[in-house]
Amino acid sequence: MKKTKYIFATVTFLMSFGCALFIANSMFGNILFGTRAVSVLDKIQEGDMIFQTSQSKQCEAIRIATNSKFSHCGIVLIAKGKKYVFEAVQPIKYTPLEAWITHGKENHFVVTRLKNASVVLNPETIQKMKTYGNQLKNKDYDLYFEWSDDKIYCSELIWKIYKNGAGIELCPLQKLKDFNLKDTRVQAILAERYGNNIPLEESVVAPSSLENSKIVTTIIDTY
Predict the structure, then answer these.
(1) What is the rounded CA–CA span in Å between residue 83 and residue 127?
(2) Three-state DSSP string of the chain
């Protein structure tokens, strides 16, 4: 009798656990590794832009200043048949797509694409974008958000690859003064970076400006 109860309890547990995994996979399969539906990542194409929420004081300040949940972004490029995110961190580098996703808060990410990508981003143009981008590879991350090629920050990298590689301006540039600089957390980062000499007239581009571009469409949103 005890053996029968044990077998029944074991079978019940396994069935319940299996159901829980099925539900979790249905709800979160696009986010969790090992259970993510392969088809989701298969939707991502070369030239797509990918956005996430990183966790640091600077990233928090970026989100606040730009009124956006995004603080980091990169461009998807393919090398030897594998998808990478070309990103401006320290230094500028290629990061495997799956690894890049894990760096964001709760593995959430958003992917956008040019509305006319199928026409504009032909193999020749993609190669020009890669060639330009590789000139910036291994350069230092720009903590001061200057509009020069000496050092590069994440959204600047994408904007310049599209501009110089494909001849496309994803969005208008803004000035640093255009953002929300009144929040104390933002002011703390500005004071740390610039002291009393904040370059309010510096041309900048934010992740949110790229994500909200009028010429792109959202392909994946796991938030």
Answers:
(1) 15
(2) CHHHHHHHHHHHHHHHHHHHHHHHHHHHCCCCCCCCCHHHHHCCCCCCEEEECCCCHHHHHHHHHHCCCCCEEEEEEEECCEEEEEEECCCEEEEEHHHHHHCCHHHCCEEEEECCHHHHCCHHHHHHHHHHHHHHCCCCECCCCCCCCCCECHHHHHHHHHHHHHCCCCCCCEEHHHCCCCCHHHHHHHHHHHCCCCCCCCEECCHHHHHCCCCEEEEEECC
Residue with tokens 């993510």: 36
In this structure, what token pair is assigned to residue 99?
A: 């690894």
Give the integer Cα–Cα distance in Å for 126 and 117.
10
pLDDT digits (tens, 9 = 90+) for 139-174: 999 999 999 999 999 999 999 999 999 999 999 999
- Please list, residue by residue across 81-92, b when 16 or more beta carbons sit within 10 angstroms of its beta carbon and e when fewer do: eebbbbbbbeeb
Q: What is the pTM of this model?
A: 0.82
What tens digit of pLDDT does each residue of 40-73 get?
A: 999 999 999 999 998 777 888 999 999 999 999 9
Residues 6 or more apart in contact with residue 89 via CB below 8 angstroms: 95, 141, 154
